[in-house]
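Notes, p. 3: input format for complexes.
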Amino acid sequence: MMRERPLSPHLDIYKFAYTMATSIAHRASGIVLAFGFNLLVWWLMAAAAGPAAYERVQGVVGSWLGQLALAGWLLAFAYHLFNGLRHLNWDMGRGLERAEARRSALWVVIATVVLTAWIGYVAFFGGETA
Amino acid sequence: MSLQSPLTRVRGRGSAKSGVSHWWVQRVTAVTLVPLTLWFVVKLLGLPSLNIGDVREWVAEGWTPVLLIMLLGAMAWHSALGVQVVLEDYIRLKSLKVAALFTSTIFHVLVAIAGSYAVLRIALTTPITAG
Ligand code: HEM
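Output follows (261 residues plus protoporphyrin IX containing FE):
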């Protein structure tokens, strides 16, 4: 049988803090990535199945809705990556002071914008990278 | 009298210790995902095109299939653990919670296997072109 596992403290016990926003965004971006995982596999399966299936995927991804989803996924990826590194740093007991956490939140936002912009630029305007 | 043994009863309360491995695997997969996801994105951006021919050729070459399957495994595991926490937090009704966790776990495993199978299929059926 399944044992009871501890839950996260519920939202309404908190006073608003800047760290709340980054925490909620980490969860939201994780969920977006979890959906994206299915799309990644769908894309691989289409590539394995052949040109007809692959063209259908390209059609969906190429539509404006598909492009919007891709851009959203990219943003979620960049944010979750950098904020995840922030989490891992905390897990090692570092950066937990209020001022440090505030500063790292700012760095996460900056890094997210830069990485998203860079990938977006290369993806949409072409050019060799690797 | 209860049909539960004292051990079972006590296990439902207090520290179950299983939280440690959940927490630990979430971290291990997170650390694994950092290089793997960055590798994946950089490689995709570097492809001459995302047409099926170029994509298949890349998937089939060298260590790509091995790393891709690792990526899929780490991603599925990390995502399953993460989604589990979210479901546990937001679904109050016990029966619904168990059903959701069950479905999510099975689905993550299924998708990871499907993705790995696709990678292997491409790797084993794409002829290697020189250059
Ligand atoms: C790219 C590298 C990644 C890193 C460094 C990373 C890091 C982390 C960390 C440290 C946590 C735990 C946060 C906490 O303690 O509250 C977490 C949670 C989570 N991650 Fe990731 N992650 C990465 C990629 C992914 C991917 C690719 C997915 C989905 C396919 C994903 C989905 C999730 C989900 C759903 C959660 C749970 C969120 C929550 O409990 O609020 N992550 N991630």
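The interface with chain A takes residues 11-13, 16, 18-19, 22, 27, 30-31, 34, 37-38, 41-43, 45-46, 50, 52, 55-56, 59, 68, 72, 75-76, 79, 82-83, 85-86, 88-89, 98, 101, 111-112, 114-115, 117-119, 121-122 of chain B (CB under 8 Å).
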